[in-house]
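hi! just following up on the protien thing from before. the input was this:
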Amino acid sequence: MYLTHFGLQEKPFKSSPDPKYLWLGTGQKKALDALVSGILHGDGIGIVTGDLGTGKTTLANAVWRELGIGSSPLWFPARSMKASIFSN
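and the predicted 3d structure came back as:
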């Protein structure tokens, strides 16, 4: 019903992130550039944190796409980690 009402071609809400709908605001673009640059220059580990549904997985997929063929992503889902372990 809402597809016709809003003139949509496909259902807008899915259970998994769809990279073709990645929106890069200033902060997201900065994060993407920093992660890609860090990987290409061997700067160590990049950590992306955020609340559920804020786009971490979508951003990680964008980094992987940006790096192209030959790259291998490695994810460590850390849902139970406390923020305090990253601070001094």
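The two ends are 52 Å apart (CA to CA).
The helical segments are 2-6, 26-40, 56-67.
cheers
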